[in-house]
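Homework help board

Subject: predicted structure for assignment chain

Our instructor gave us this sequence and asked us to write out the predicted structure in token form, then describe one feature. I got the tokens but I'm not sure how to describe them. Can anyone check?
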Amino acid sequence: MSGLRPGGPRVVAVGGGHGQAVTLRAVRRYAGEVTAVVSVADDGGSSGRLRRQLGIVPPGDLRMCLVALARPGSALAVAFEHRFDAESPDEGTGGHDDYVGHALGNLVLAGLVAATGDVQEGLDEAGRLLGAVGRVVPAAYEPVVLKAEAGCGEIEGQTAVMATADIHHVSLVPADPPAAPAAVEALLRADQVVLGPGSLYTSVLAAVAVPGIAAALRATRARRVYVANLRPQRAETEGYDVAAHLAGLRAHGIDVDVVLADPAAIELGPASGTLVVEPLADEAGTAHDPARLAVALARLVG
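My token output:
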């Protein structure tokens, strides 16, 4: 797992959060080139504070992807995940530069973006420091606000959307942020694009809602694989089976070529199209196992 496979497929993972990090740990086992296209809608925790205080793209999901691609045994990767674990100060008290509650990697990324004057240069420099075997690219170079149309009305903000049920559609504010050119290029060059696992609306579709990313997904010749979650997410996708997740993608103009799911973990429902079922959960049954996911995904390269 130390490096990529020469001559292996070009693989792009789209989404955000812990699910995307698991996908990257799987993909690096069989790919020749890896790119993570990451949502920039996060507004909670350390990422939300840095976003509001510094006006930068939220670094948390970007950090997790960099760590997933880092050199095995990297002490710096471990340090990136270290969180200064005391109660975060009340933002109204003026503690703008207080490190409490932040992950060290988020602070380092904020510093690198400031030092280079460019989001992508900062991420690429972090990747070099970590010995990352792939590239991490934000879906857009500006922070966006996730907006949902739900049964209860209109909801704004990723954290609020996560706690909302009966979601019909998500979009962004601004509605048409320019997609990162590196993300579009990677999608168009890819042999395989992996969507998920991860929160349907607040991770996967939060990235795909950037119009240029959605257009590139539709235009790519890569095989598009959707990795289903192991369970519905409370509130956001309460009661969803795999078919409902696919319906949510299609409602946003995204069709996939293959769906990969673990039927022991989530109901399939009347899912249409090419469905591949595999045991994907780890021993605890709480998350996807990177080794199992790698074997399944490697078989699905177009």
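Reply (TA_rk): Your tokens look well-formed. For the description, you could write something like this. Residues 23 and 110 are 25 Å apart (CA to CA). That's the kind of observation they're looking for.
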